[in-house]
Specification:
This protein has 383 residues and is α/β, with parallel strands linked by helices. It has 13 helices and 15 strands. The longest helix is centred in the last third of the chain and has 20 residues. The chain is globular.
Length: 383
């Protein structure tokens, strides 16, 4: 195999950008596209000069591809991915890999059973920022983590939510800001700080005329006793993103594009008991972390890495198994917010499935003011 033949399923929005990436990579060949909107499917097929389908099963069984990129609404990721695995294809799924942890479990199991590559589109993992921060943490420069903080504001106007019948509904999307805008940052946050063992969250719909959450505030507890705080919302303008990871030896602070490491002259656990002066305080040295320029980052690099794993066994940057962590985090927040109680991780699969079924039953048809299927222009720049 010289190139991996790729079919893209769901090409009205982000999938369209993925088609362009696949078309321009040396390791991949775009051979087919699929969308349940026949007009969109035909348009993309004609534009890229490939066969188009309106039924994903027909594309998967066509023999035209070795792998698929799944870029449909969230609820369809598991059924399409599992069908692809069972029919001998590799899968790169858009984020999140699933709405429910129980479905994510099934996807991972199907990939392993059929010995196929499974990756998730967490493109932030390709950036020099993430690589540098992971290096700092793996070198042990923070020491044992004592506290975390992640404040991740987004913004969406009402027209965004009215651009499609599936958006911001339990039956169409399975959640709000937590499952749509926040997964990339949740992946980034948990990759650096680890997955908490317990989450106690408050969720609400504060600003928009939608049935799912547009604001989240959550208290986190970690296995080692560390505490954390997480906030996200589509009710305020984006940025600056703020993340802190405080350890025994140092504190890492990310604010917008600035990264600062506050190095303690002595570990807190030692200084606290060795100091004689009642007003003694640890000396802190501020270190500005230089982040190398971006070279080869974004969605295209995840697709390239996916293909190179299939061709040459290259280690995956964003394995499907890792996608389970963010789904655990998301499910814990929604379950805690709806049940008004702390939720342990791993999330109780049965309890969450039952909650989703209840919420889907109350989900109401939405009046769409203006259907719009466009790629986020800010994300499109990263392709």
């Amino acid at each position: 195999m010289e190139k991996v033949r790729i079919g893209v399923i769901g090409v009205g929005g982000m999938g369209y950008a993925h088609c362009q990436s696949v078309k321009n990579l040396e390791e991949t060949e775009l051979t087919c596209v699929c969308d349940n909107d026949e007009e969109i499917a035909r348009k993309r097929g004609e534009e890229f000069g490939v066969r188009y389908f309106t039924d994903y099963k027909e594309l998967i069984k066509s023999g035209l591809c070795d792998g698929v990129i799944v870029a449909t609404p969230h609820w369809f990721h598991p059924e399409i991915s599992i069908f692809a695995f069972e029919n001998g294809l590799h899968v790169l799924s858009e984020k999140p890999i699933a709405v429910k942890v129980s479905d994510a479990d099934k996807m991972i199991e199907a990939a392993k059973k059929n010995k196929k590559t499974f990756a998730v589109m967490y493109q932030k993992r390709t950036t020099p920022l993430v690589k540098k921060l992971l290096q700092i943490i793996k070198e042990g420069r923070l020491g044992e983590i004592h506290r975390t903080l992640c404040v991740d504001p987004w913004y969406r106007c009402e027209a965004y939510y009215e651009s499609g019948v599936w958006r911001a509904t339990w039956i169409g999307e399975g959640g709000g800001v937590t499952i749509n805008q926040a997964p990339h940052t949740i992946d980034f946050f948990t990759l650096l700080a680890g997955l908490p063992k317990k989450i106690e969250a408050k969720t609400r719909t504060r600003l928009h005329n939608i049935e799912v959450e547009d604001e989240v505030s959550a208290f986190l507890e970690y296995e080692n006793g560390a505490w954390g705080y997480y906030y996200t919302s589509t009710c305020e303008p984006i940025g600056p993103f703020h993340l802190e990871i405080a350890g025994d030896k140092a504190k890492l602070v990310i604010r917008g594009n600035e990264v600062t490491l506050y190095n303690y002259e002595s570990p807190i656990s030692e200084f606290t008991y060795k100091a004689d002066d009642m007003w003694a305080s640890i000396k802190v040295n501020e270190e500005k972390i230089e982040i190398p320029e971006s070279k080869g980052t974004g969605h295209r690099e995840i697709i390239k890495n996916f293909a190179r794993n299939i061709l040459y066994g290259e280690e995956l940057l964003s394995p499907g198994e890792e996608g389970l962590k963010s789904v655990e985090f998301i499910n814990a927040i929604i379950l805690s917010g709806k049940k008004n109680k702390p939720v342990e991780i791993p999330v109780d699969r049965k309890e969450y499935d039952e909650l989703m079924e209840e919420l889907k039953k109350t989900s109401k048809p939405k009046k769409v003011v203006k259907v719009q299927r466009k790629t986020d222009p800010n994300i499109a720049k990263q392709v």
